[in-house]
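question for whoever is on the cluster today: can someone run the full assembly for these? two chains, 621 residues total. i dont have access anymore since they changed the login thing
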Amino acid sequence: MLSTVNFSALKRPLIVLFCFWHMAAVAIFVMPTALQQTVIGRARASVYPWIAPYMFVTSQWQQWNLFSPNPLRKVTNYVLQAKTGGRWKDIADFNRSTIQVWRRADELKILRTIEDKNKLLSPIAERFLREQCARVAVGTSLRLIYRSYVLPPLLKPLPPVWWRTYVPEKSDVPGAITRCPPLARK
Amino acid sequence: MKLWGKIEQAFFHPISASGFGLMRIAWGYAVLFYYLLEWHDVTRYYSGAGLLPVSMESIVMRMQWRFTLLDIVTEPYAVFGVYVVFLACAFLTILGIWPRLTTILTTLFLFSFHERSYLVLGGGETVLRVIGFLLMIAPGIDAFSLKRFQQQWQQWRKTRELLPTLTQPAWPFFLLLWQFSVIYLASGIDKLFGEMWRAGTAVAAVLHHPHFARWPMHFMDTISPLATPVTHATVAWEFSWLLLYIPSALTNRIPLWNRLVVRRTILIGGLLFHGGIFLFLDVGSFTLSLFAGYFGLLLGEDFTALRRLFNRNKKAPITVLYDGNCGLCRRSMFSFVIIDHLHRLKPVDFRDLPARKAAAPDLSEEDLDRSIHIRFPDGRTEKGFFAFRALAKHIPVLWPVYPTLFFPGVPTVGQMIYAKVAARRNRCSHENCKV
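^ ran it for u. tokens below:
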């Protein structure tokens, strides 16, 4: 039966079918979150189980919401504190100016993800803290502080002079905490 | 049947494969560059002893429909080994050594690293992944590869002509164009739901975010008045990708509508948009990864137009007189021809008397035998090192070297080296001659 099928004649229609399938799958998968409560969003939800395996298996999963619907306004400095003499003291600050330029994007991405999913990722945050144990004595407690402020929700353009005089109000939110074990020291 | 004919014509008509060849190189560079930056952290990010041990993957990663070599290879030294092989594959992809195999391997390694940990992934990494997938399945990625170079050399040896431009069916181009359109349109639609994009203040907020701002805040303050028009222009440009999908039956009725001009304007808009992001903001690998993809969006007519633009004041080619009896000279001439992307050179074998008489009747064979000569359309002649230096000005890949050839001392050393090579060039006639 198979020998009677002309595979070369099928090649082009199969490629065209694949192209249409791939284009549809990509477009449906990336549907903006803002549309997901609409009719289009509900239609997407019904076909999602069909396209998701393809998008995941081929590693084509994607979402294009960089700086949208609104740009990120929360600005966080990630501060490492050690408990010495019963008081927490800042011992390191992870931000653009303290992380080497070639590691900056990755390290800030990790810290932002840990901050966003604070509770869920607390085991990862603890592992991050354990990596910092080489900075302190065995048995010292370390914690991560999210020292942050939120840029105002700009609803009208502001002149440069406003930006120059803008002083953000920072607040500290404690994150993961750990006690440095002897084995973690290098 | 008529519909299928139209679809078949659209998807399978041959287009220049140069864009995808350049995209392969640029993508390989982007992958190699951004993963080299992780050299010191690779085991920390991707091994079982790092930030995300396999036992904790389920709190960060989706566990369904996910495959990664690094779930099997978890020991730090083994992960580092995989990483080194991955980098080697990316390097071979750039050179185009076994381009199909190395591109597939690089893409699969890239997938494996991305599927092992989402912690360090951003938009740029996703762009690298989607381009890698398209390169993996596109039939025409051999352009500008060493494999293609060897084929060209065989052709040049036989005919003194290069092979015609490599082509591939149009469907990979459509998939890439669609992918870019989806990126910008999805992003544009999402922005419409944001108050700050609608108010024209989004770009000002991004410029003032210390995680992204590349320059000191006082400089960002100064340029912030430009942010409002840039905010609106960004959204408008993202939606302009829709113009590429207006059927020609409609655009044909619009006076002055030119599909080529519209497409090129959108692409130039993209270069300005992403160039601006790169200049003012640090968003990781996003900009350079997208730039790699832009090469794939170039068609044969774009390369022709670029060539025309660069050659607008050039009336005739530069004649390069080389020794067709000397293996080294033939190989050198071929090297010049293969990188003559602006088509400005006209090689002439001075051992071919009629050709020499036509190109440079005033130059004797003895003179030409001493060194390479080039003749400009205005009659000017350069020879030896100075001929090479003059040619460098007309060959884009040599532009970075060109200014250095004027540094004090370089001409003297250049002439000495040239004289030594020229004196030994006739030791043998075959092309593999070691000088």
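summary bc i know u wont read the tokens: The mean pLDDT of chain A is 90. Residues 7-29 of chain A form the longest helix (23 residues).
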